Amino acid sequence: ASASADMKPVGTDSFNMKHLDFDAATLTRENFYDVLVPVAKQEGEVNLYSFAASFPVFWKEAVIPGFEKKYGIRVNFYDVKEDVAKQQLIAVHQADQDSPADAYFAPGPTPAETRNTPIIANLPLADVLPEAKNFDETLLHVSFGFDHGGTFMPLHRDQTGMGYNSALMKPEEVPADFPALLAYAKAHPKQVAITSPLKGGSGENFLYALAQSMLTGECHDKLASDFGWDDAAAAEWVKTSGCFTPVWAYLRELTPLVEVTNGNADTQNLIANNAATIGTVWEDYAYTFVQDKQLPETYRITLLANGQDGGGDGIFVVRNAVHPAAAMLLIDYAMSYEPQFWKMKNMASRTARKDIAITDAIDAKNAQFLVPEAIYRKYAIGYPTVPVMTAMRDAYVAEIVSKM
Amino acid sequence: MTSMAHLRIAGLTKSFADAVALHPTDLDVEQGEFITLLGPSGCGKSTFLRMLMGIAAPSGGAIWLAGARIDAMPPEKRNIAMVFQSYALFPHLSVLGNLAFGLKMKKVPKAEQERRIAHAVRICNLGPYVARMPRQLSGGQQQRVALARAIVMEPDLLLFDEPLSNLDAKLRETLREELLTLHRRVGGTSIYVTHDQDEAMSMSDRIVVMNEGRVVETGTPFDLYRAPRSRFTARFLGRTTLVDALAGKGMARLPWGQMMPIDSAASGPVALSIRPEDLDPALDPDGAGVVTGFQFLGSAVFYHVLAGDIRLTASAPAREAPIPAGSRVALISRAPLHVLDDSAGAAS
Amino acid sequence: MTSMAHLRIAGLTKSFADAVALHPTDLDVEQGEFITLLGPSGCGKSTFLRMLMGIAAPSGGAIWLAGARIDAMPPEKRNIAMVFQSYALFPHLSVLGNLAFGLKMKKVPKAEQERRIAHAVRICNLGPYVARMPRQLSGGQQQRVALARAIVMEPDLLLFDEPLSNLDAKLRETLREELLTLHRRVGGTSIYVTHDQDEAMSMSDRIVVMNEGRVVETGTPFDLYRAPRSRFTARFLGRTTLVDALAGKGMARLPWGQMMPIDSAASGPVALSIRPEDLDPALDPDGAGVVTGFQFLGSAVFYHVLAGDIRLTASAPAREAPIPAGSRVALISRAPLHVLDDSAGAAS
Amino acid sequence: MARSSRIPFSTDDSLWLAIGLYSALVLVIGVPLAMIVLWSFADGWFPPALIPTAFTLEHWRQIVEDRGLAEATLRSILIATTVTALSGVIALPTAWAMARFPFRMKRAVEMFVLAPLIVPGLVVAVGVGQLFLSLRLAYTVPGVILVQLIGTLPLMIRLLSASLGTIPEDLLLAARALGASPLRAMLAVVLPLSVPTLVAGGLLTFVESFQEFDMSFIVGAPLVETLPVRLFFYLDGSGIRFTSAAVVSLILLAPVLIVFVLAGRIMRDDVMASGMGKL
Amino acid sequence: MSSTTARAPRHDGWPAMKGDQPNGRTIALLLLPGVGLLALLFGIPLVSGIFGSFGLGMGAGRNAGPTLASYAKVFGDPRYLAGLRTTLYYGAMAVLVDLVVAIPLALALGRSFVGRKLFNGLYKIPLAVPGIVVAFAMLTLLEQGGFLSRVLHLVGLSLPRLVRDPWGIGVIAAMAWKDIPFMTLIIVGSFAAVPEELLHAARAFGASPLRAFLKVRLPLAMPGITAAILLSFIRSTGSFVIPDVLGASYPLPLSVLMYQAFRDSNWPLVYAIGTVLMLASFLILLSYYFLTARIVAPAGGGGR
Ligand SMILES: Nc1ncnc2c1ncn2[C@@H]1O[C@H](COP(=O)(O)OP(=O)(O)OP(=O)(O)O)[C@@H](O)[C@H]1O
Ligand SMILES: Nc1ncnc2c1ncn2[C@@H]1O[C@H](COP(=O)(O)OP(=O)(O)OP(=O)(O)O)[C@@H](O)[C@H]1O
Ligand SMILES: NCCCCNCCCN
Ligand SMILES: [Mg+2]
Ligand SMILES: [Mg+2]
Known about the structure:
Chain A is an alpha/beta fold and about 400 residues long. Helix content of chain A is about 45%, strand content about 15%.
């Protein structure tokens, strides 16, 4: 998309906004601030929802004060539970009412999950936000394998991995790949903590990564690149294709040997309590725990060879928002250099900006708690599609969990 | 136009879905009278009172009080006060609060309220208790508060529903007299419900004897005790032995053969009511009766005597040691025996 | 070694933190006796019974029953049964279940259980009700079940705690006689608590009069009524007028000047207990008293008479119309007046 | 008259019983609560340490400095107070009818009133959200109050109808006889006599309202944000951080515990037991 | 009960002058505020939820019904069947623990001891603690390497698995922790409603203290206790957060499965699970009525 192209609604002919108090069609990166700042000041305030447990500090320290100072527009910040907020917004739109939220920082799969009950404004933000030009073009348009047309801005990049306590494990003991992990678990029963794929992202991603490493050939291609799935077809494929047989075989062997936990925090607490030596974690979330002294300084993280999944979460203007101009300004601001740098430095939250390297932001001492850069480059991979992920979780229940 | 009774009840009746609680009833009560409704449990006494009070709706009939017809008025419009069996003191109000309740409801001026309450407190001897809560009072004191609460209303009619039946024997007796004294002092018209014959007899100007939703008989205590018309009254009011006898010339032949004077000129088969004090049992080896047992009551001894095949009760003063069971006694008539109105029949 | 009474109580006492409920008390009861504890509310009667039963622990003293010392035994080991004021029937058990409860607890053999229950059902006339639940019974029937439940235990001692006080007047009288008949039929030893003087007098072999945690006096009903030793007994048992008089030579000068015979040879100031039936009021324009009111009780009339400055009560049989208030009456002595043991003093 | 005659088998204050019960109390209730307090100040608490190795006020600072906190607290108190008052006012006539009149389908009405205790909140929450959107009650304080009433009314009606059933008929008749109209008898007699129940029910209602999250969020957030809506986020099971969770727990618990301590003095156990003791 | 034969049945409620029973309209008017509000706020969503469980009325484009698909899933999929079993297991075990603690506690509270008043207030604290806080406190306490295991470690003992364990010990402990005061409160009331005189009577007729408890006090307190059991059970089955945090990841109780369906916006499934939970509670409620109809209310006869 060219920076000067007129803006067009994504997917349909018209904007799904009731309160567009500016001419969206003529908006460009160039006239963005000239058009929106006066309108946004008129709107006076903006309602922001944020879902992630570790993010309030980002908004409160790195975004809101600066934004309010710069534009004189008040930000009303709301922590939300992702599932409750999603249902609220769906209900609002089904009732064709004004949205209570203007901007929503939401989980990465949200565009895919809500494609049938859209709650995302079909504004092509990727094309009009001035800050978007510094971002990775693919990440601006695709989240969790779903092309949302540039409506969902990649605010935060994350990575799952295997966190471990280096005081309890010699470097050579740290499993390098899935077979090594199984061997380690056999040697150290219940010392490995796997977040339940049904309860938290790091466990889900462990499952996907396992599949991505075990499936080969056509199976692997379908998992990684075929984005034409609908839910039923994906479920059918996962269940009946036979592609997943080695995955289930592996998990059937592994599961009894490990502690399946009820969430990312749960896994991290086990590590902190010395009740587990190694477990599935989110890179950024574990980093926050280290800063908070809830994980020991001897905590380290690595990726299993053949890849572990990473992705990200994004922010969007909510359909029928009451303060759309302010919301767009706010998103633009959150994507700008300063906040993105702060986020990386303090939260180990990676960025989709092309102009910030991890080494710019994080000193050597804190870098110990991140995935070593070399390993990251080698083994970080992206997700399968949302329908396939959902189908895999269901199949996991059928194949593993209900047979334990 | 003749002057009407203070309270006139005409054809008052009450039916429930499944039963008639009060058959049509007439009653006139004069100003100042103390009337007792006496009858067994369930005979309709409370139903009667509740209709007077206005807390139950009559199925028929009319009520006039102090010249005005009141049977369609809601209770709060009638000038009638009531003392409940349970006292129904408001547990959340002090004695004073209880006394003032009705006056406040009727919006009696403050000064007048105080005057009336002071008066009631004085005549009911409640001085020391005005600040107490009902639960801090003994049964007798509660009873006096309930009464005072009714008195302050200066009602045209004062109703009592078994106000003493929750108290113990000794207290019941004391309060009975206290209540009567108060009634005299206040000078109001009262209707009093009880199933205790002693209470009815010792307190009332007139007793209305009721049974199964009907008035059986009305009269002064003395008349009803000495000369009841019906078996029911005879039996319910005091002890009695009912016997069949053959009458003639002011005398009757009793089942065990003795002849005794009666209070009627009737002849032929009659039913007699023999009160214990009508017969004097005297030790006599040739007497008609045998003492089968006795009950000592302090002032008198009641002897159970078997005469022929009749078991009867005869009383004697208890000044000397009682006649032992098994002794043969003669039964000496002390007064003419009473002939009941009901035509004779098995006096079971 | 002399034979011991069936029940012997020695120095039995009970104190609570704040009060003494029973001062040290001795009592001997013979096999088959029917003893009544009589006294005002709160005098310690129930406390006494509960210690006998074992559901309250004595603060001191000893109890022997049928030769064995029992005061330290838990209730379930004592062979004593009790009829409670509220009956305390088990509401979740049928009449039969209630009767069998104690027998099951004591592991009486099945056949024996059946025999005893059948016996109790028969003598208490409970045949038609055995399958009913307690709430389906009238008060009188419940009372009989409570009694039967005690009888089946064939206890060495049967205790009653005001078993009739929850009933109404007429029923109370009927059950009183029924109970006594049953006691005679069963032949056990019973201790009966009441605050009703009529009940005590008409039922007991001996009465133990109590007041404020102490035994005041013990004796047969006749002795206690006619010749009480203490003012308390005189006043609590029946009506009386207590007067101070000056005695000498078997006579006493009463406050209003009349001389009357007394039952003692004492001389000097004495306290007299004048029962209503001791004086006969007779219409007499020169009489010493004035009738101030009367109470009609059916069998007798109680006259309130003012003689000098003494208010006294005198009774007359009620066979003719009562003497109207205001009449002047002579007071005729019917029997020697009783001299109390307590040394004279203001007979308030 | 029924005179109460109770002689306990033992009248002595039992010391050993007290020691046993209080020890159990400290272990069972005190220790878990102490965990929460310690976590809220913990700055490092790794095994084998039994208490945190260092302490900090940082967790408290982060949350207390939240600029909406005071506002949300006040709003929650306002809403809980209103819900409590309304529950009482609405429940009273209904409980009166249920306690004192026979009517057809009474059993069914009783069960219906109890139903919100049985039905999972989630089943109702979204339906209510939809309904309120169309009634224009969404994101309004009245909307939040109404939705909370669903949870609090059943309890209040139960408690009140149990206690109203025990007010002697004679008291009402006496009030009428003394000149009170039905309405005034209600105000002058029934209401004062219901105070213990209203207090007990009111306290429980206050607690329930103060802590309700799901329905309040769907109906009220973001415009009407209650304290739990503001804070329950930190307690999200999968993303829980013990430190901030501990602070939030204590903030949510504090007012409620204060209410309970106050209530210990005025709340009568028998009221609660009679209301819930028979369904 | 004060008198001999049954006394006249009393009027109920207001004695209206137009006949003694208030008419239907008055009653309806009185019922209206409470029942009406619940009918509107609760009844309508409930009905639409039940419809929703058959895929009906799910909003534009989502009207999938009528279909039994969600029920087929609940009763066909081993995951949901296991969920139902787990729900019943957690509920029953929690109630069992409640009873084992609450009954002796209620008995103890009936006696006098030093500091009884204070204790009476303190033991109720868990009533005011939100489920998530309970879960959190229990987690820090019972988790492997948590407080308890550190304490035991000092004396050389090690703790069995109490969290995410196959028997749900942690879940049951947390549920019971929260519900015991509630249960105790009701049982204290039920015990207090048994006239002391009946216990004395039982002793007088040869029952040991234990037998007097088992044969008299317990049966008479039963209606209250069963109500407490029922309510605790329902509270436990509805509890979502405690099993979510403390339970094993399989099998999950229905409440958690319902929440997961909610997360996935699978409304027919949410409603179907909700309906099944409701039906289970309702069946238990009915059997409660059936059972207690046979047990005498202690207030019935015999009392004073
Ligand atoms: N609301 C009612 N519905 C049906 N029957 C009733 C009602 N109230 C009273 N009755 C019946 O009417 C009759 C008279 O009852 P009432 O209360 O007047 O008797 P009572 O003489 O006062 O008895 P007690 O001495 O026991 O108080 C009884 O048979 C009673 O069962
Ligand atoms: N548990 C107790 N603690 C303190 N005082 C008590 C206790 N039980 C009884 N008392 C007191 O002991 C005294 C005797 O009580 P008791 O119940 O034996 O009287 P009573 O003669 O049976 O009275 P009533 O005729 O009213 O039944 C009373 O003053 C009473 O208040
Ligand atoms: N189901 C949501 C997956 C997205 C998870 N993002 C986690 C971010 C943690 N910082
Ligand atoms: Mg009556
Ligand atoms: Mg007693």
